[in-house]
């Protein structure tokens, strides 16, 4: 697979071949500006998209295991987004912190 190719040759994500994506797949690099996604959404800034990806509809999952990344990424100001996505359900059924910096204490208490 393309990910295996990148891993074995120790290549960075900017060398990913976008032709390997499905029609609904997308690749947004940190340097991207005004990048259109297949659903019509336009990503204005790749770095902002990366930093907030866990709060978007593209990131819902049964299990979310943040391990490092951006400290305080889920905080009291955005925890409601995690609890209620666009369809009214939580973005994640379970959050298991791999590192305890991702959530603020206030957000952690609200989630509990």
Task: Report on the architecture of this protein.
Strand 1 and strand 2 form a beta hairpin. The protein has helices at 2-8, 46-52, 79-83, 105-111, and strands at 33-36, 42-45, 61-64, 92-95. With 112 residues, it is α+β, with helices and mostly antiparallel strands. It is globular, with a radius of gyration of 16 Å. The mean pLDDT is 90. A two-stranded antiparallel sheet has the order 1-2. It has a two-stranded parallel sheet with strand order 3-4. 23% of the residues lie in helices and 14% in strands.
Poorly predicted segments: none
Order of helices and strands: HEEHEHEH
β-strand amount: 5-15%
Largest sheet: 2 strands, antiparallel
Structural category is: alpha+beta
Instruction: Tell me how many strands there are.
Output: 4
Order the strands across the largest sheet as they lie in space. Answer: 1-2
Cα-based radius of gyration, to the nearest Å: 16 Å
Architecture blueprint of SSEs:
Layout: H1 2-8, E1 33-36, E2 42-45, H2 46-52, E3 61-64, H3 79-83, E4 92-95, H4 105-111
Parallel strand pairs: 3-4
Antiparallel strand pairs: 1-2
């Amino acid at each position: 697979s393309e990910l295996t190719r990148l891993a074995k040759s120790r290549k960075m994500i900017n060398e990913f071949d976008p032709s390997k994506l499905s029609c609904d797949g997308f690749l947004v690099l940190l340097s991207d500006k005004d990048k259109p996604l297949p659903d019509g959404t336009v990503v204005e800034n790749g770095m902002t998209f990366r930093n907030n990806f866990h709060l978007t509809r593209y990131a819902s999952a049964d299990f979310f295991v943040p391990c490092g990344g951006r400290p305080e990424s889920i905080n009291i100001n955005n925890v409601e987004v995690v609890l209620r996505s666009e369809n009214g359900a939580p973005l994640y059924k379970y959050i298991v912190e791999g590192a305890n910096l991702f959530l603020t204490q206030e957000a952690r208490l609200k989630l509990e």
